[in-house]
Amino acid sequence: MEVKKEDDGGKAETPEEKVVHLRREIGLLPATSFIIGTVVGSGIFIAPKGVLMNSGSVGLSLLVWALCGVLSLFGALCYAELGTSFTKSGGHYTYLLETLGPLPAFLRLWVEFLFIRPAVASYVSLAFGRYVVEPFFEPCAAPTALIKLVSILGLTFVVAINCWSVTMASRTQVTLTFIKMFALVLIIIPGVIALAKGKTENFQNGFEVESLTLDRLPLAFYNGLYAYGGWFYLNFVTEEVINPNRTIPLAIICSMVTVTVFYVLVNVAYYTMMTPAELLISDAVAVTFANRALQGLSSVIPILVALSCLGALNGGFFGAPRMLFVGAREGHWPPIFSMIHIRRHTPLPAVMLLYPLVVVMLLSGEIYQLINFASFSRWFFIALATLGLLIHRYRFPLHPRPFKVPLVIAVTFTVVCFFIVGLSLYSDPWNTGNSCALTLTGVPVYYVTIHRYRLPKRWRRIFDYCSKQLQILLEVAQQEVKTY
């Protein structure tokens, strides 16, 4: 079968459209929408309470939001260099593999699919369910079972789209991104108007430094960084981006500057219409704001927030399975997960694996504890990836780097990440200790199943038989074209 090579990162031209491989179908607008749509989820509607609680004052909380945006932009620029230096998909996993070796890469894959991805997806799914159901039961509490049922329906919808078509998933993301940005504008405008009219009493004495404690500051940053989380997802799908050397840096810069400006303005709007005490007692800050400032449209805000959560969920299910897909391709996960549907050209097994894990975690109700120590593992491995960038630069100075981030940005981001991770060990030793323990459970798994493949032959035969039957059932096959 003759296959023409790709031209400058454009779509692969093939004499047969049935060639099994992931197509390059993500241009600049879908790429930017993908990052914004994944970043802007439930975080901006939930995290302001956590940031204010742990920073202690209005002024410091706004400063934390701005610094989290700058820090996320620094990290995104580092990942832009990594994404253009290493042309494989897979994000964190690929960069750790290329710079620090197979064990850190495997551990990243292990914790991602053991608890980070299911925990984050469960959290966002539940936020979606809550915002859909609760308006129908006010002022009473909504039934927990119904919230979970609606959460699972939203999750199923997202999984179905990502199994069906890459194009449909990216178009859904663009549409939901425009809806969620409209929701943010709807919050910002009345806040700015009230501020222009002189409603500034909540900003007076905004910097009360005496209420700040060093042990709570990392938790304020964790809440802010959780709301900005998702800036790295485009790197998970590098092999599906059109002209990645141009698209990845442009999409990252445009999206993160936009999100930072919007987040700071949204928080200014919150503080214009609500006192700090009112914000702290609210479980749904956006709904409280809408009841105060948008009385005629207050019923619309929960719907817009629910759609925002759905967009974040879609972005997560679009990006994260590609890490699993690449890990399986490199031999760090069962080969079935590196296969693609022969007609839909989607990584079907990798997407479907996440679905039952998220459903089980969603039904178990142990999500919020997991979210706390999922943040530690996520940021520890991001810090390792950017440390790997610096080490790779030193060891291989002549390696082609189409986009090169200034050294001071890479060093600053890496140091700050390790500092936040280290401080969190001091401020929340129980959750971070559990996170370390869960991460280290991957070490014996790596040495038994991958490094020295010591599984009994009978187990291997059973595993191979099950893989073959699954491949036939799901109609999937290995890629026939090298896409990196």
UniProtKB/TrEMBL annotation:
Q: Where would you find this protein in the cell?
A: Membrane
Write down the Gene3D superfamilies for this protein, in alphabetical order: Amino acid/polyamine transporter I
Kindly list the GO molecular function terms attached to this UniProt entry: L-amino acid transmembrane transporter activity
Domain of life of the source: Eukaryota
Which keywords annotate this record? Membrane, Transmembrane, Transmembrane helix
InterPro entries documented for this protein: AA/rel_permease1, AminoAcid_Transporter
Provide the membrane topology annotation: Multi-pass membrane protein
Gene Ontology, cellular component aspect:
membrane
Q: Where are the transmembrane segments?
A: 26-46, 58-80, 114-133, 145-166, 178-196, 216-236, 248-270, 300-325, 346-364, 370-391, 403-426, 432-450
- Pfam families given in the database record: AA_permease_2
What this protein is called in its record is Si:ch73-352p4.8
